[in-house]
Amino acid sequence: MEAGSLASRSRSVVALPLAALLIGLTAAISVVDYLTGSEISVSFFYLVPVGIATWTMSRTAGIAFAVLSAVGWSAAYFLGPHLFSNPNIYFWNVAVELATYLALTFALAAVQSEMRKERALAVQLEEAYLRLDDEQRLVGDLQRSLLPQAPPPLPKISIAIHYVPSARAGGDYYDFFPLTGDRTGFLIADVSGHGSPAAVVMAMLRVLLHTATAPLEPPERVLAGINARIREFTLREQFVTACYSVLDATSASITYALAGHNPPLLVRARTGAIEMFENPSGLPLGAFEGTVFTACTAQLEPGDTALFYTDGLTEAMNARGEMFGEERMRELLLRHRCESAERIRDVLLRAMHAHEAGAAQADDVTLIVVRAE
After folding, report:
1. Domain locations in the chain?
2. Which contiguous run of DSSP H or E holds residue 3?
3. CB 276 within 8 A of CB 265
4. What tens digit of pLDDT does each residue of 187-197 get?
5. How many Cα atoms are found within 13 Å in the side-chain-facing hemisphere of 84?
6. Residues 70-101, buried b or exposed e (16+ Cβ, 10 A)?
7. Cβ within 8 Å of residue 261, ≥6 positions away
8. Among 149, 273, 302, 311, which residue's beta carbon has the most beta carbons within 10 A?
């Protein structure tokens, strides 16, 4: 309350010199109006102090100066020669003068009022955006806390991972599940859409897998089980592409099944051949009930590398709308096939960012690089 009173008094103190200046300006215009008589019309110059008073002080001040200007015009008329044949013409003219000044006052006041409303709305929108952004950040932090921070240690196998959503929260999901012996199950999935809706589906997908009572194998049964349940918590237009695999470190083999997901790539260290994981992919999860999935097995030789990825990598775009593409990804895998899993991951990401050249990341990007040492 005290702060508001101080601000009001401060504005009043600032307005006093300006009011005095505008009164002097009005008087000067009236003098010029008297000296020039009817030969030169200076009536519209009264609009200057009226406009300044309205814009810088208030509508009330503008009304006051409109009346003062009409008085100044009347003074110039009565002090000068009377050229009107009918005295009643004076009343008509002063009414027109006053109406003109008041019209300017109310027009400027209306413009100011709309501008204040627009500024207030802009402030409200900014505050709402900041609150939403903060909520999205919290959702993103929570989502990242649900993901494994490091892959499980396995003998003779190295694994490198990467996950970055395009927004605060995203729809990509990866996870690892311990199985018997030197085996681990792992999933890479991509929920359609972005932001919080996709993040919610991702979280529910994690709940399904981590609360499963049956062992998370074989891969085709795991995907079928997810598909039977996922429609309970997805929207009608949502679906999930996924690849679930079982990695056996002892035999260096990967048994996998696909649900509408990008087939992983296998680069042979010895020959340099790049093979796409062969699999008759089933439909995305949540698309239809009763979808059948098929499992296949890929054998890794020493030095071979398998890349599991979401389409945020290959579909990364630059400012010209050009995609990073699978061919560029294959060339990098071939060129760096003898390097570590971490190095291959970093090379792919650097090349993707260089291709984007500062353009905004359009989709979530998740990589899992598996290398037989």
Report:
1. 2-126, 147-372
2. helix 2-36
3. yes
4. 999 988 777 77
5. 12
6. bebbbebbeeeeeeeeeeeeeeebeeebbebb
7. 188, 189, 190, 241, 242, 243, 281, 284
8. 311
Of 103, 24, 36, residue with least CA distance to 68: 24
Asked if 333 contacts 267 with a C-beta cutoff of 8 angstroms, the reply is yes
What's the pLDDT tens digit per position in 269-301? 999 999 999 887 889 998 888 889 999 999 999
R_g over Cα of the chain: 38
The length of the chain in residues reads 373
163: helix, coil or strand?
strand
Q: Report the pLDDT averaged over residues 210-231.
A: 90
Name the one residue in this structure whose structure tokens are 């009022």: 113
Those residues whose C-beta lies under 8 Å from the C-beta of residue 81, and which sit 6 or more positions away, are 37, 38
Report residue 344 as tokens. 């291959």
Q: Which CATH number describes the domain made up of 147-372?
A: 3.60.40.10
Are 351 and 365 in contact, with CB atoms under 8 Å apart?
no
